[in-house]
Design a protein that fits this description.
about 100 residues; alpha/beta; Rossmann fold; 3 helices
């Protein structure tokens, strides 16, 4: 029996859907660009209302009410790039910006 390459049907590889929390950051922006270039579907989250779009959902990790948007979507992977990076904000709100140990 001879098996040719056409004997096998390749099932399409599903597009992986990734949520990048904090896509407005330098790392989040670069990661999204890289993932999209590799064929992933990358959705970002933002806390900036002016950046909300079909590719950026509003999500504030300090406001659990905003988590309801996640209930309507499914993701294969979530990458956390969100952080408070402003030194002024960290000094003004030390309890909010302190990392858990």
């Amino acid at each position: 029996m001879t098996i040719s390459a056409t004997s096998f049907t390749r099932s399409p590889i599903p597009r992986r859907k990734v949520l990048i929390v904090g896509v407005d950051s330098a790392i989040g922006t670069a990661l999204k660009k890289k993932l999209v270039g590799k064929g992933f579907e990358a959705i970002g989250s933002t806390r900036q209302h002016c950046h909300i779009s079909s590719e950026r959902i509003y999500l504030d990790l300090q406001d659990s009410r905003t988590f309801t948007i996640l209930g309507r979507q499914t993701f294969d992977t979530v990458v956390l790039c969100g952080a408070i990076t402003s030194l002024h904000t960290c000094e003004k709100y030390p309890l909010i910006s302190k990392a858990s140990t």
